[in-house]
């Protein structure tokens, strides 16, 4: 808890009449971790501390010793995408985390970058998961046609709308044509995957 206080996730407050005891209180940062908060980031934290994500750190030194395998491959014998597919519980937590990340990030992007979306007619969200970002975009810009591209197992049971279409495919094989391509979290995930984090 002291480390979490140092990082600003919690603060201390004196309790009782004599203020002899200390208790922990939420800070602006920790409020993002409360599940009752509509913009909660708790699933992001839970996903990042999941053993599937933490265990590759134990093999990180192999990267520095010239190994051709990423730490994630060394720890699990497969790529992150395969782990997500073969472990439904971890996959659900991961996709929930990405959706939570989208809620917070897209409110900023849509407020600060309105001009970017005004002149677009179509957009493809590469690695768009369950479509949280695409739905936020079409709510703010109803004239847009959004395509969510993700692996077939991710989008298989998802229902689209008039403005949001789900496409099950591998981004390394083909990305649909659109006025713009959105790589919101994908680039960060690719970097962390390459590092094995």
> What is the CATH topology descriptor of the largest domain?
Rossmann fold
Largest sheet: 4 strands, parallel
Number of domains: 2
CATH class of the largest domain: Alpha Beta
Keywords: Methyltransferase, S-adenosyl-L-methionine, Transferase
GO molecular function: O-methyltransferase activity
GO biological process, one term: methylation
Protein name: O-methyltransferase C-terminal domain-containing protein
Describe this protein with a few key phrases.
disordered C terminus; 11 helices; 4-stranded parallel β-sheet; 197 residues; alpha/beta; two-stranded antiparallel sheet; globular; Rossmann fold
Structure overview:
With 197 residues, this protein is of the alpha/beta class. The protein has 2 domains: 2-33, no CATH class; 42-191, 3-Layer(aba) Sandwich (Rossmann fold). It is 44% helix and 16% strand. It contains 11 helices and 6 strands. It has helices at residues 2-6, 42-48, 51-54, 61-64, 71-76, 80-86, 88-112, 114-118, 132-140, 152-155, 186-195, and strands at 10-15, 21-26, 122-126, 145-150, 164-168, 180-182. The strands form 2 sheets. Strands 5-4-3-6 form a 4-stranded parallel sheet. Strand 1 and strand 2 form a beta hairpin. Helix 2 crosses helix 7 (88-112), helix 6 (80-86) packs across helix 7 and helix 7 (88-112) runs parallel beside helix 9 (132-140). It is globular and about 65 Å long. The chain starts with a helix and ends with a helix. The model is unreliable at 190-197 (pLDDT under 50).
């Amino acid at each position: 808890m002291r480390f979490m206080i140092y990082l600003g996730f919690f603060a201390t407050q004196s309790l009782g009449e004599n203020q002899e005891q200390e208790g922990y209180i939420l800070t602006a940062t920790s409020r993002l971790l409360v599940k009752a908060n509509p913009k909660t980031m708790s699933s992001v934290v839970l996903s990042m501390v999941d053993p599937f994500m933490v265990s590759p750190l134990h093999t990180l030194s192999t990267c520095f010793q010239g190994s051709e395998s990423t730490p994630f491959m060394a720890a699990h014998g497969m790529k992150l995408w395969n782990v997500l597919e073969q472990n439904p519980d971890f996959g659900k937590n991961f996709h929930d985390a990405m959706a939570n990340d989208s809620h917070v990030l897209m409110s900023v992007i849509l407020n600060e970058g309105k001009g970017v979306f005004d002149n677009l007619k179509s957009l493809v969200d590469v690695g768009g998961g369950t479509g949280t970002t695409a739905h936020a975009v079409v709510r703010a810009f109803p004239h847009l046609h959004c395509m969510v591209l993700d692996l077939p197992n991710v989008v298989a049971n998802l229902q689209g709308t008039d403005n949001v279409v789900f496409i099950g495919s591998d981004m390394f094989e083909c990305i649909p044509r659109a006025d713009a391509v959105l790589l919101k979290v994908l680039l960060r995930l690719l970097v962390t995957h390459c590092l094995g984090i």
